[in-house]
Amino acid sequence: MNEGHLGKYSFGGERAATDNHPAVIHYLPLAEGVAAPLAVGTLLKAVDVYGATATTGEENTGVTAASVEPATFAAKAGKKVGVYAFAYDSAWKLDGQEATLLDYGISLTGEAASGDTVTVTLTVEDAYKVGRFLGWYYGQKTKADRCRVVIGKDTRRSSYMFEYSLVSGLTASGADVYLLHVTTTPSVSYVVRTEEFDCGIMISASHNPYYDNGIKVINGRGEKLEEETIEKIESYLDGEMGEIPFAKRDAIGRTVDYAAGRNRYIGYLISLATRSFKNMRIGLDCANGSASAIAKNVFDALGAETHVINNTPDGLNINTNCGSTHIEGLQKYVVENHLDVGFAYDGDADRCLAVDSEGKLVDGDKILYVCGKYMKEQDTLVNNTVVTTVMSNFGLYKAFEREGISYEKTAVGDKYVYENMSQNGHC
């Protein structure tokens, strides 16, 4: 996918882990099913909401450029906080979803975060209001005396600022807040689901630079928040709802140090192993992020000889020339130290790439293949099916066919993979 430009800003995609081509990213709301090539100057209907016009290059090259005055974009985007980009798949079909502050990383400065995004500022006031709404909303829904919300964060400096803002809003609305402190996004999902919290919040901008940040809200089942609830939060942020009452006296919420929840998650990860890792020499790149608080403990407990790099976060070095977005560092480290395998995480440790003993990349498709083949052999692959996004390599599907494994494809985004798996009984 080629990058487009929005005035002094630009939008485009992040690079795929599987090859050297830009991958689809799915943040800008484009009309689904629109096929390229488009005529030069074509106005994409859904994009028009944000004042952008798109043009194309050579036949079958897809959208290559777009332009809009920054002031026009800002005015039409309003308070839709988020990162915006267009997307199309290998068949040149345009598709996409709108990202809000609840989904992906947000620039704190309002400037383009990495040259391929358009961002709208997320402030501490926004975080406070998100907390106010969630505390009130789940307070109405809970069957308990008051709602319980668990919060995790990554290591970037602003995560502490947003944590305090969210806590203020939540407790002011009567919610009890449990702090996991620095932890991974999957751990928040696990704790919410297994310990019956009303919802969870992860403060992170994932693989983005330290100066970006965002708020991810997780429902009581450990899943991404429903669109209906997201729309209600946005309505409150936009001032379209009435005032939310403040909790008073003993109804004011409490804050609880809940590092024990993170420790239970570590125990859960250890329990998943099917054998000891004794005599295994394993390298870890923690990206100076959330994995720094968890990964080494897990591998050490399983008996591995664990070698770790980029596990000294200082609030400003998360994802900086390290982690899954800079796998070359781990590749070199594994070879130089004669390790058996290496794993690199992103900032909030919800994605991982691997490196073999020769320093060769084991990307997402290869990991899917290894896991799918192993689970089939162990008779634990539900419905004998692996679900991927449309970005997976054709070779992966040929390999699955050879092994007698079924597969299904979804739009880009873990949300769509999970929806497919849950709706079709694949998990």
Q: Please, could you describe this protein's structure?
A:
This protein has 427 residues and is of the alpha/beta class. Residues 1-119 have low confidence and may be disordered. The chain has twelve helices and 22 strands. The chain is globular. The strands form eight sheets. It has a five-stranded mixed beta sheet, sandwiched between helices. The protein has a five-stranded mixed beta sheet with strand order 17-16-18-19-20, with helices on both faces. A two-stranded antiparallel ribbon has the order 1-2.
Task: Write the topology of this structure.
Blueprint: E1 4-6, E2 9-11, E3 34-35, H1 45-48, E4 53-56, E5 63-67, H2 70-77, E6 83-84, E7 93-94, E8 106-107, E9 118-119, H3 124-141, E10 148-153, H4 157-172, E11 176-182, H5 185-194, E12 199-203, E13 212-213, E14 215-218, H6 227-237, E15 255-257, H7 259-272, E16 281-285, H8 295-301, E17 305-309, H9 328-336, E18 341-345, E19 352-356, E20 361-362, H10 364-377, E21 385-389, H11 394-403, E22 406-410, H12 414-423
Parallel strand pairs: 10-11, 10-12, 11-15, 16-17, 16-18, 21-22
Antiparallel strand pairs: 1-2, 3-7, 4-5, 6-9, 8-13, 12-14, 18-19, 19-20
Helix pairs in contact: 3-4, 5-7, 7-8, 10-11
Strand tally is 22
- Distance from N terminus to C terminus (CA atoms, Å) equals 32 Å
* Main sheet properties: 5 strands, mixed
Helix content: 25-40%
Strand order of the largest sheet: 14-12-10-11-15
The Cα radius of gyration reads: 22 Å
- Beta-strand portion reads 15-25%
The number of distinct helices, counting runs of at least 4 residues, comes to 12
Task: Provide the structure class.
Answer: alpha/beta
Q: Average the pLDDT over all residues and give the rounded result.
A: 76
Query: Could you list the spans in which at least 5 consecutive residues all have pLDDT below 50?
Result: 1-119
The coarse silhouette is globular
